[in-house]
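User: Predict structure, ligand iron/sulfur cluster.
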Amino acid sequence: MMKDSYGRTIDYMRISITDRCNLRCCYCMPEGARKEPPSQILTFEEILAVVICGAGLGIRHIRLTGGEPLVRKGCAQLVRMLKSVPGIETVTLTTNGILLKENLTALLDAGIDGINVSLDTRDRARYRQITGVDGLETVESAIRAACKCRIPVKVNAVSIDFDCCGFGRGDFEEGELQNVSRQFLLPDWAAVAELARELPVDVRFIEMMPIGYGRQYQTISHEQLLEEMKARYPGLEPDSRRHGAGPAVYYRAPGFQGSLGLISAIHGKFCGDCSRVRLTAEGFLKTCLCYPDGADLRAVLRGPESPILRANGHFFWPFAACPGEEGLQRRLREAMEKAILEKPGAHCFEDPRAMREQRNMIDIGG
Ligand code: SAM
Ligand code: SF4
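Assistant: Predicted complex:
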């Protein structure tokens, strides 16, 4: 079991497997990705090498993310590879859901343990406005399909304060005004929350974090959101059952199949219980969202002592040298241990001047 210098057990690794995405969310990557050349992105074997090392250090839970993980070919194959690593207990996925339906069978066959789907609104026009794509029906239909499978499904919605963000009525086209008036009757958050009544899904609201383009938007305070939830759902009760490894605080509304969760990074700082590290698509082990600190594991993986082969700018693992090779694992372990020991004690979202991380969410891996 690996502890950092604050005594926190680190057992959860989020791995970004691509910096590309098929959506253009306004708070994440409205202009598209910076797009590293493919050779700069870790290969599946390199990710496997990091996970073997992480498992030796006490990592038990892996979440694949991105960019959009399902735009990377072979995502299910990677799930299978990581599931086979001794010590790894769960491999889960966070996706925007656009490509989920067609990948569901392969992911289940590979042993995926849970899927989180991001959905900020159930209003078609607003979904298009946020993501740049007319994809609401596709995502909702993928959520329904996933709910029929034997794995936990969660919906994640970023709590954007639309009223403060210039998403006004004037932004909608003529034919869409009907949707807009429906929206005034049922606030966006409540329409998303209703999914937990209709389906056996946990719906979690995530405070918008001031990272990259996220700085241009305001979050709804979750203190305020909880008050609104209590008013809309009389009988809402705290739900103390364990729902996974994350920092969400859950509530149960009468008649709902799933729970409602609040992930309040800003107004409910949970750094004291943080158990996670992040691996960027380029192989940087990042220990806190707010700071660029961590370890360049790609430099270790591709260093002069590494068993990896290079040809025409591509990297290959020789058949005889598996990602578990002893020398490589030792070097990775030294780098990872040092980075984890130096993991910052807390984020500093409340004081933007102290934030040293300048990259966008897409480059960090959400
Ligand atoms: N493309 C996948 C998706 O959208 O689920 C995975 C990557 S995305 C970066 C992971 C999550 O981060 C999404 O739920 C997204 O809404 C969230 N996210 C992105 N930028 C954010 C920000 N500034 N604050 C809070 N959440 C953010
Ligand atoms: Fe893509 Fe996810 Fe970022 Fe949206 S939040 S642009 S879906 S990576």
